[in-house]
Specification:
The chain is α/β, with parallel strands linked by helices. It contains eleven helices and 13 strands. The protein has one domain: Ribokinase (UDP-N-acetylmuramoyl-L-alanine:D-glutamate ligase). A six-stranded parallel sheet has the order 5-4-1-8-9-10, sandwiched between helices. A four-stranded mixed sheet has the order 3-2-6-7.
């Protein structure tokens, strides 16, 4: 019997966000990491969520473990590395928007290898979620992602994937090769339209959905930010409009969408219903600062859906 509905794999980090644009010395500590955000979003929305990663044996690693405990995210798949640090990043604000500065090279999570995977945890989930960032942080982590897919799928899990393209982490040629290879072995893919444009070289949303299908993804959810999303199972295609909200900070909104989508699939929704729910959840995630704090609960999403009806 599965012990988790949704299990995410990747790297979590400590965030330091510039308090005000005119204050270059004061930062507010928060949390980041796309797959960690996804797992927390799923947990807040009612799914049994877990995480697979590595953190350093340091104060930042302990804070992440405390975060997951508070958010009821199972940490049996998280290992503590005595020889490598927990990754951190800084967010500064300027006339061109957010700027991210990462200190993650050699992090504990980047040291993940296939032989370190918690196979028992991977075999006991209904959905395994991973991202392009999970694959990009190191060659060994990339190998571990493919090995985790094999283990989880072998035990009957479905695979959720967000390409989450970050060209600061790897060259586009490698990113394209790895991401396209992954699309052929997942159950659904959740790319942002901006990432899909870069990966497939088209400005047309429907062409981007078609490209994901052609690469092997049976179910595609193209996330379009304030414009909503497009959902396609290869036979039916539906465009879902965006929600009008007071957008303050879009950090983590795509991760929220991913977590909400998996949570609702586990609850029995079809992909189109799950995407409508996830679309509302992601919109609410933009109404507060940083990635974790504004992630909504189920009641808030239901209110938003009724308001938009």
């Amino acid at each position: 019997m599965a012990t988790s509905d949704v299990l995410a794999l990747g790297e979590a980090m400590i965030e330091f966000n510039q308090a005000r644009p005119d204050d270059a010395r004061t930062y507010v500590q928060g949390y980041g990491g796309d797959t960690s955000n996804m797992a927390i979003a799923a947990a807040r929305l009612g799914a049994r969520a877990g995480y697979v990663s590595r953190v350093g044996d340091d104060a930042f690693g302990r804070r992440l473990l405390e975060l997951w405990q508070r958010e009821r995210v199972d940490t049996r798949g998280v290992a503590i590395d005595a020889d490598a640090p927990t990754g951190v990043y800084f967010v500064t604000h300027g006339p061109d928007g957010h700027e991210f500065s990462y200190l993650r090279a050699g992090s504990a999570a980047a040291g993940l290898r296939p032989d370190m995977l918690p196979s028992d945890v991977l075999r006991s989930t209904r959905i395994l979620h991973l991202s392009g960032i999970s694959q990009a942080i190191s060659a060994t982590a990339c190998d571990a992602c493919f090995a985790a897919i094999d283990i989880a799928r072998g035990a009957g899990a479905r695979i959720s994937y967000d390409p989450n393209l970050r060209l600061k982490l790897w060259p586009l040629s490698r990113a394209r090769a790895v991401i396209r290879a992954t699309l052929g072995i997942v159950d659904w893919v959740l790319p942002s339209q901006d990432d899909a444009r870069v990966l497939f070289g088209s400005e047309d949303a429907d062409a981007l959905v078609d490209a994901c299908h052609a690469a092997g993804a049976p179910l595609v959810v193209l996330k379009r930010g304030p414009d909503g999303c497009i959902v396609s199972d290869g036979k039916r295609r539906e465009t879902i409009g965006g929600h009008v909200v007071n957008c303050i900070d879009a950090t983590g909104a795509g991760d929220c969408f991913d977590g909400a989508f998996s949570a609702r699939i586990c609850a029995g929704d079809d992909p189109f219903t799950a995407a409508r729910y996830a679309n509302a959840a992601a919109a609410l995630a933009t109404t507060g600062y940083s990635a974790v704090a504004p992630l909504p609960d189920d009641a808030a999403v239901r209110v938003q859906l009724r308001r938009a009806a």
